[in-house]
Amino acid sequence: MSSKTKSADKLLFTSADWDFETLKATYDAIEDIALNELKLDVYPNQVEVITSEQMLDAYSSIGMPLMYHHWSFGKRFVRDDVMYRKGYQGLAYEIVINSNPCISYVMEENTIVMQALVIAHAAFGHNHFFKNNYLFKQWTDADGILDYLQFAKSYIAKCEDRYGFDAVERILDAAHALMDQGVNRYSRPEKPNLAAELKRERERAKYEDETYNDLWRTLPQPDQGDQDMDELKRKMRVEERRAQFGLPEENLLYFLEKNAPTLQAWEREILRIVRNIGQYFYPQKQTKMMNEGCACYVHYAIMNSLYDKGLISEGAMMEFIDYHSRVVFQAEYDDQRYSGFNPYALGFAMMQDIHRICVDPTEEDHKWFPDIAGNNEPVETLKEAWAHYRDESFILQFLSPKVMRDMRMFMIDDLSSSPHLEVAAIHDDNGYRKVRRSLARMHDISVREPDMQVVDVDIRGNRQLYIQHTEHEGIRLEKSEAEMTLGYIGQLWGYGVTLQAVDYESGEILHEVNYTPDDLVGN
Amino acid sequence: MLYIVDRRKNPTGKSLGNRQRFMRRAKAQIKKAVESTIRSRGITDISSGDQITIPGKTLKEPGFHHMGRGGNRNYVLPGNKKFVPGDRIARPQGGDSGSGGSQASPDGEGEDEFQFTLTRDEFLDIFFEDLELPDLLKKSLKQTTAFRNARAGFSVEGTPSNLSLVRTMRNSLARRIGLRRPKTAEVRELEEKISALQAKAEKRPNGKLTKTDEETLHTLLEDLEEAKRRMKAIPFIDPIDTRFNQFQQIPDPNTQAVMFCLMDVSGSMSEQMKELAKRFFMLLHLFLHRKYEHVEVVFIRHTSRAAEVDEETFFYSRETGGTIVSTALEEMKKVLVDRYPTDQWNIYAAQASDGDNYSNDGAKCTALLAQDLLPKCQYYAYIEITDEREAEIFAAAEGETALWKSYAPLARDNPRFALKRVTKAADIFPVFRELFAKNRAEAGR
Hints:
The complex is a heterodimer of chains A (about 525) and B (about 450).
Chain A: H1 2-10, H2 20-37, E1 45-50, H3 52-60, H4 71-86, E2 94-97, E3 102-107, H5 112-132, H6 134-139, H7 145-163, H8 165-177, H9 194-217, H10 231-244, H11 252-259, H12 265-286, H13 288-308, H14 314-327, H15 343-359, H16 363-368, H17 378-388, H18 391-398, H19 401-406, E4 410-414, E5 420-426, H20 432-442, H21 445-448, E6 451-457, E7 465-471, H22 479-493, E8 497-503, E9 509-515, H23 519-522
Parallel strand pairs in A: 1-3, 7-8
Antiparallel strand pairs in A: 2-3, 4-5, 6-7, 8-9
Helix pairs in contact in A: 2-5, 2-13, 3-4, 5-13, 7-8, 7-12, 8-12, 8-22, 11-12, 13-14, 13-15, 15-17, 18-20
Chain B: E1 2-6, H1 16-25, H2 27-40, E2 50-55, E3 73-77, E4 88-90, E5 113-118, H3 120-130, H4 135-142, E6 147-155, H5 165-178, H6 184-203, H7 211-233, E7 244-251, E8 256-264, H8 271-291, E9 294-302, E10 306-309, H9 311-316, H10 325-339, E11 345-353, H11 362-373, E12 379-385, H12 388-393, H13 402-413, E13 417-422, H14 425-436, H15 440-444
Parallel strand pairs in B: 8-9, 8-11, 11-12, 12-13
Antiparallel strand pairs in B: 2-5, 6-7, 9-10
C-alpha cells in the first residue's frame, strides 16, 4: 500500500488536463532525459500555447509564425478549415520552427500526454536535428529567420500599398511557380543578414536600374558582317555571352532577379524574398524522412524512459502508444489509404533498427554494418547519422535487410516500352541492394524534381531566353503546368522564352515550347 | 532553458487577409457559384451564408513537375504479399496510385474542387454586387431597422426610473427578516405596554410600581431601546436590496408581412425574364425580412387563368395560353380575404410581367387595383420585364404595352403604386431602390 502511494506521488500528472505548472514539470522531466540520457544538443526552447484556430492560421502559411500575405495561403486555409471542421483531417499536433530559440507550438486542446509527446518530439527531436544536421547548419540561419520573415512581410505589405495588390500578386504568383527552381543546390549561399538586406535593398533601389540599362546599351548591335563569321568565332562569342550571364544557371529565380531587363527594383526584391524562403526550406525537403524519424525515435525513447522512471502512469502510456502508432502507421501499396511511403513510419523503423543493430546485432547485421554492429552506442551512432546524412544518402547507407523484410518492400520497373510493370526485386538476398538503391533515389530531391537550367540569352536579337529541361530516362514535364510556368517566366523576363527538353544521354533537343510576349494578351 | 508563452490571447484570424486575397482571386468563380446558388435556391432562404463549390483548376499554382507516368523509372512499394522477381503486373489504368511513391504531388494536395462556406456578409456582398447595389443602400439594407426593449432580468445597477419595486421590496424584506429587524408594529406594542405600565404607576399612591412591574418595565425599556437601535442600524431599504429592471435591445421587425408575387407565365415570358423576376422577388424578400419577424410569400401565376402555386412551379413551369392579368388580381384578392386580414398583416405585392394583356382586360385590372387591392397594400410594385433587344427597339415608344397603359394613370395619383421597367440584371437594384427607397418610411411602418 505504501509503495503504491509513493509511486503515485512521483507521477507528473494524474488527469488529462494540463496547466502551466504541470506543463513546466513535464518539460523539466523530459529535458532531463533528453540532455542527460540521450545527450541531445538543442537550441533553447520556446513552447507556445495556441488555440486550434491559430494552429489553422499557422498551418496554412507554410508553418511559419510570420508570413507575407498571398492568396495561395488563403486557399490552403480555406481547404484546411473545411477539412478540419468536417472532421476529414485532424490538425497537425505540433508545428516547430527551425529558429533560435526553437519555437514549438502546442494546442490548448491537447491532453497533457499529447503535450508531453509534442515537447519530446518537436522541442527535442526536431530541435536537435535542426541544430546538428549539416544541411541545416550550412544553408539556414536559425538566428535570423524570424527577423527576415518580418522584413519580408512588411516589405511585401509596403509594396502592396505602393504598387497595388494586383501588381504584387502577379510577381508573387510567378515567383511561387519557380520556387522549386529558386534554390542553389550546390554552391553555398550567403546567409541572409537583416541589416545587410535592408542596406542592399536600398542601394538596389537607387542604382540598379541604371546598371542594367548600361548592360543592355553596351551590347554589340547586330551587324551584317556576322553572317560571314566563321563557326569557331561564333561559338566563342556564345561562350563569352554565357560567361557574362553566368550561364548555365540552375537557379532560375536568381537569374531573373539579376538579369531580367524590365523588372522594377521592388519586383527583384520580391523574387529574392521568395528565393530566400525557398532556400530556407530546401534542407527540410531533403531530410523530411530523417527529421521525422529522429523526432519519433526521440519521443519514443523519452516517453518510455518517463514510464520506466514511474513518472507517468500506465494509462498515460497507453494513450501515448495509441497516438504513436497512428503516427508511424504505414499503409501497404494495395490499401485504400496508401499514398506513398510515410516518412514517419520509414524514419522511425530505420532509427529503431539502427538502435537494434548497435545493441543486439545478428549475423546479417555484422555482415552488412560491420562498423556499427554491436558497438553498444546506439544514441551516439544515431547522432552521427543525423548530423551527416540526408534522406537519400541515409537510406543508401543504413537501410537494413530487416527493415526491407519487415515492411515487405518490393521494387517495380516501369518502362514505357513495356505494356506491363515488372517486379524487379523483392526483399530477398538478390533484391536488397536494388531495392535500397531505388528507395534512395525516390528520396533524392534532385531526381524527384526536374533538372532545369537557363542556358542562353539571345542578346543580339530578340532577347529570347532559353531554358532547358534535361530529360532523364524519358521522364517528361507535366505539360500544361510547364506551359503555364513558362508563361510566368515570360512575364518576369518581359521577352520571349523557349523551353527545350534535352535528352540526358544524347544531348539532342527532344521538343521545344515557345512563349512570346504576345501570349500575355490572351492570358 | 525553457520559455512557455501563452499565445492564446493573441489575435486570431491572421489568415483573414489571405482569405480575402483568395476571395478576390477566385472572384469570378465565386460569383458564378453564388449565381447558381441563387438560381437553385428558394426566395425565402436567401439571407443566410452558403456553402459553395468552385473548380480548383482555376486556382492552380503551377510549377515544373515531372509527369506522373511515362519514361523509364523504378520505385519501391511496401506490403508485398505474393510477388517474386519477374512477375508482371498490368499497368493500372487511370490515376497513378501505382506509382504514387515516385510521383506523389509535392505537397500532397488534390486540385479537383474547392468547397467552402461563405459567411452571410460575403454572400450578400456578392449577391448585391451583382445587382450593382450602391454602397449607401447596402448599408441600410444590412442594418436592422428598429429596436424594442425587452425585459432581460434584473440588475443591481440602473436608473431610478427602472427601479423594480417588487424585487427591491422582496429583497429588503428578506434582509430584514434575516437580520431580525423589529417590525414597527412590535415597537408600537412595546411602547404601548410601557405607557400602560407608566399610567399604572401614576395611578398608584406612591407613584411607584410593584417590584415585578418595575422589573417588567425595565425589560420592556431595554427591549424598546434594542428595537430602536436595530431599526436604526438595519435600514428599511438598503442599497443592496435595490434591483432595477434590465432591458435588452432586440430588433423589432414589428409584426408580420405577406408578399404576393404575381407573374405572367405564358409563353412570352422567357427563362431569362423569369430569372430577372426571381432576382427582384428575392431582393424584395430580403428587404421585408429585415423589417418583419415573419414574412410569408404567396406565389400567383397566371395565363388566362390564375392559380396560387409553389415556388418551383412558379418559376420553372411554362404554360401557354392567353393572358388575362385580372385573373391574377382576382386570385390575390381572394387569398387576401381568406388568409391575410389587413389588421394583422402588412401586405406587399410585386407583379412581374412582360406587359401583354388581353385587350379588354385593362379596365378591369385598374378597377380591381384601385378598389380592392391598393387600399389594403402597403406597397404594390409593377415590374415590367422587357427583352433587352426589344427595349432598344421600342425605346421611343415608352409605355406602350397594354398593361402599362392601363396602370400608368393609376400610379400617377397613388403613392403606394409604382411602375418600373427592367431589362437586365444590373437594372434590378436601381429599380428596386427607386421603388422602395423613397417609400421606406411609409412602407416600413
